Every structure is written in C-alpha cells, then in structure tokens.
Amino acid sequence: MFPQRLDAPEAYAIAQALMHGYNQHYRMFSAEAARAKQRFETLDWPGQQRAQRERIEFYDRQVRACIQRLEEEFAASLQSMAVWQQVKLHYIGLMVDHLQPELAETFFNSVTTKILHRTHFQNDFIFVRAAVSTEYLENTAPGAVPIYRAYYPGNLAQLEGTLQSLFEQLQLQCRFEDLQRDVHLLAERIRERLAGLTLRANFQLQVLSSLFYRNKGAYLVGKIITGYTELPLAIPILHGEKEQLILHAALFGEDDLHALFSFARAYFMVDMEVPSAYVSFLRSLMPRKPKAEIYNALGLAKQGKTLFYRDFLHHLRHSSDQLRIAPGIKGLVMLVFDLPSFPYVFKLIKDRIASSKDVSRPQVKAKYQLVKKHDRGGRMADTMEYSLVAFPKERFSDELLAELHAQAPEQIEISDRDGDGQMEVIISHLYIERRLVPLNLFLMECLAEADTKPERRAAMERAILEYGNAIKDLVATNIFPGDMLWKNFGVTRGGKVVFYDYDEIEYLTDCNFREVPQPRTEEEEMSGDIWYSVGPRDVFPETFGPFLLGHPAVRDIFMRHHADLLEAEFWRGHQSRIRDGHFLDVFPYERSRFLHAGDAGLDTQRFEIPANSLA
C-alpha cells in the first residue's frame, strides 16, 4: 500500500539512520578488501585467511548495531506500519544516487524484518524486488577509478608491450621476478588461443581495475575481444620461490572461470566501489553462473541470499513439480529435500539425531559455520543459511510432509500466516546447497556398465581419483572430513568431487591419528569387539578400507592412487606441516594452465584435474 502523504517527521530520520548503518558496514567491508593488497604484498598469509574469516561477521554485527540504535533513538519496534511505509519511501530516495543500492536494500530488509518480526518477502515493508536500477551504474566523479580498463594492442606483434604496461599499472609494491619473461609466455598462450581468428578493428583487452585476492593469490580478471568473439581471461599472480612475483598461469574460457569462482571455494576480497558493475562484468564472462553465486564469490553473501530467494520464488511461480525427499541414502543427522526442476537441495537438522551420532544441534550448526569461514579449497560446498522460510504447502509431496512431521516436527509450522488464503509450510531453520550427484550413486551407475562401456570404466576411475584428491585437498587446508563414506561426497556438473556432509568434520590438527595396536593375546585377536582404548578424537586410517573398498574394482583403483590415505603416517605428516606454519597451495586450475615448466618453486602437490571423462 502506497502512503498518500509523507507526514511522519521521524520517518526520514529513521531512513537516514538505516542508510548510515549500511554505509558504515560497506566502509568496513571495503577497507578490509583494500588491506588484502598489502597482505598479499607482504606475504601475510595467516593474516589474509584471518581477514577472510572475520569479514564474514561484519554484516550481522552491523545489523545488530543498527537495530540497537533505532530502538534507542526512535523506539523503532513501536512505530506504526504507516510510519514504516514512509521510512521505506524515504530510503528509496536516499538510494537514487547511491553506488550500492542493491546492497543497501538488502541491509534495509535485514534490519526491518528483525524489528518488525516479518518473515516473508510478501509484505509492504521490505524490498521484494529491486527499487533502484543498477544498470550502467558507475562512479562518474572526476578521478574515480573506472570499473574496467581497455587496452588496444593493435596487433599480436605488439601484445607483449601492451601486457607489460597492463601489469606495471597494477602498482603492486613488490618486484616481479622477471615480468618480461612472464609476459612473453602469456602472450604466446594468447596467440595460441586466438590462432585462426581474424583480428578485427575492435581487438582489445578489458580487465577489471581491482585485483581479486584469495589466500596466496591475486587474480587479474578480464576478457579479450575481437570482432564478435569474447574470450574470458584470468591471470593468477603469485609469489615464486624467490618471494618475488610471477605470472603463474593463464586461464581462458568460461569453464576455467567457473572453476576459479566455484561455490566450493573461499570468497574473494575485491576493492570495488560499485559491486553491481563487477557482477555485470563477471556475468558476461560466465553467463551460466547465477548472479547470486557471483555476489557470494565476492564476499557479499547476504546479497547472494537475497537474489537466490528471489530466483527461487520466481522459479516456483513458473514450475509445477513437487518438493520431494532427495534421492540417495537418508542421513542420520540431516533431512534433505529438493525440487527436481531446481538445482539446489534444502537441508534441515533433525529434531532427534540418531543415537549413533555423537553430535547435537548446536554442534552441527557450529560445523556449518566453520565451513563458511574456512578455506574450502574447492572441495566443500558453500551453504546458504536461512530462518523462517515459507514454502507453498501444495508443492510438498505427501512423503516429504510425512517425513518432516516424523523427523522435524518442532521446526515446521503449517499455516496461512500472511492471511492470503494460501497455506504454507514454514521451516524455522535450513541450509541450501548446490545439488550434486551423490558419489555412491555415480559409482553404482558406472559399475553397472563398466564391463561393457569403457567410457564408464574410465569415468569410475576418474571419480575415485577425484575422491582421493578431494580428501587430500581438504587435508591441505587443515580439515579432516570425519565421515568419509562415498555418500557424503558429490559430483559437480564439471566432474569435480566435493564434500557436503559437515556434521563430523574436525580440524586435522585436533585429531589423533593412530595405528591399530597389535593384539597381545589370542583372545584379543579373536575378539569381535574393540579391545583397545579409543579416545574421542582418535582416528585409525587403516580401518577405512572395509567401509570404502568393498567392491574389488573400486579397491583396485583406490589402492593404485590413494593407498596412503589408509596410513596414519600420511595424516600425521600433514599435521606436522600445518603446525609448522607451512601452507600448501591448492590451485583452482589444472597444471596444463601453468605458464612455467615445472612448479616454479611452489607447493604444487595438488592440482585440479581434467574431468571430461566424468560424463
């Protein structure tokens, strides 16, 4: 309902306080992103990881601070709905010339839903849709940094000079080991990719003005344009063995960029004044990637959640299939359901967790928060956490409703809370993740045809190789997955194996990896029970085999590639490395993308592997 008059003087003051709260948040967010450059230049890797973790808390902290101010100064929760409608209109006015209006809208929603105890998008007091356009939004003030810069080599012979100028203009406060050498190698790769194309008058390189920082790397992101061809491009910049900068690899095409911006990796730090412009540019490189996931990758997870939920509501309006219990083996801790036509799954913690699982609801939530803040290394799926989510009751299958009543009755409410005549199932708390093919189902499909179809045998081998690599990548980031059963891993569209069951994960350095003691007596040897003492964090890697390697073909492949995972010494060795402060690199690209022969003195034990046989 649109207010006829703006006659509440406190409404404008509340709107100003809300905008001040948002602006303060984004100043903190931007300052941390700007400091990422200095941490990269000084090789402050622990500081970089710490900043990535702590930044996640900024938003909720500022929302709480803003709510406190509004209550203290304006008794916000006691204001009438008429006043709040006027607050929203004043706030829209404050966003007209704002450089982050979409983020400011989400901040408004976060604050007002908590003050007014509104839980759904279908009301008059929050932004259901964007009120201010971000199209072609840019800071046009004199001296403002452009969103991207364009470079015009003229022809391929002049490419080295253009690239040299481009990297020098980054103004990184540390020396390149040999920029001329690296630029030559990069130019050769670009020429290879452009071979066969006729260069047109518009031949150019467009690169985003800010570098993308994550862990030990800084990434230049852009595209090459000639004629109607646009080739996505990303160049990782790392510190080499001499602690000087090197151009480490050349990434080309949408698939390479998808791997770099994967939902299974930690968020980037990017100093950007107009996030929507960065998202628009990145979307031109990765048109299949939802905007929500791009905002997530940039560390703007609340905006990602907002866009995701809008996408979901839009999908519900234009689909008719039913929510169902997700395929696969049911979990002991989580109840999982999905909508077949929508590429995500919904997970909620059961009210009564199976007694065989020594974990509580608060502990499970803490594990998911650990994953959110940790370097996921490309091997742990990101999650979006929601509270009080309403679904149309008519879209639930009978089986799913029965399962919810049986497993999580305390977390669901079925009512017409909005009074619009539509019954809804309101779930108090859930997680949402990208849907993957459960690895156990993938392997079963491969095994069923492995004897008659060589490509399925190859796909099975690749998946098992990827499974072991996934565990080793987690180990590299100080994560022990706990429950390593195949069903807790999934296969992505691109063929990567990713872990997604977090209720038993631990920091690797908190575990005690042991060999199974030798029996001292015949009675101990013949005993069907564990006769030796086992501490709460004791892990016996040699016992993994019976649970994982029952099928001879699976065992053969696993033992050829990953037998070391069954040895306690493997795990203890990585514990020692981590305790000594040695961070392994887990690169988001294949070895074939490297510019240098060999590893340039870097820790390159783990790489992305081609997945084209994981059909």
From TrEMBL:
Origin organism lineage: Bacteria, Pseudomonadati, Pseudomonadota, Betaproteobacteria, Burkholderiales
Annotated family: Belongs to the AceK family.
Localization (cell): Cytoplasm
Entry's EC annotation: 2.7.11.5, 3.1.3.-
GO biological process: glucose metabolic process; glyoxylate cycle; tricarboxylic acid cycle
Xref: InterPro entries: AceK_kinase, AceK_regulatory, Isocitrate_DH_AceK
GO molecular function: [isocitrate dehydrogenase (NADP+)] kinase activity; AMP binding; ATP binding; phosphoprotein phosphatase activity; protein serine/threonine kinase activity
Database matches in NCBIfam families: PRK02946.1
Primary location: cytoplasm
Active site: 382
GO terms under cellular component: cytoplasm
Pfam families: AceK_kinase, AceK_regulatory
Reactions catalysed according to its record: L-seryl-[isocitrate dehydrogenase] + ATP = O-phospho-L-seryl-[isocitrate dehydrogenase] + ADP + H(+)
Role played: Bifunctional enzyme which can phosphorylate or dephosphorylate isocitrate dehydrogenase (IDH) on a specific serine residue. This is a regulatory mechanism which enables bacteria to bypass the Krebs cycle via the glyoxylate shunt in response to the source of carbon. When bacteria are grown on glucose, IDH is fully active and unphosphorylated, but when grown on acetate or ethanol, the activity of IDH declines drastically concomitant with its phosphorylation.
Binding site for ATP: 326-332, 347
Keywords, sorted A to Z: ATP-binding, Cytoplasm, Glyoxylate bypass, Hydrolase, Kinase, Nucleotide-binding, Protein phosphatase, Serine/threonine-protein kinase, Transferase, Tricarboxylic acid cycle
Span of domain Isocitrate dehydrogenase kinase/phosphatase (AceK) kinase: 321-590
Protein name per its UniProtKB record: Isocitrate dehydrogenase kinase/phosphatase
Residues annotated as domain Isocitrate dehydrogenase kinase/phosphatase (AceK) regulatory: 15-320
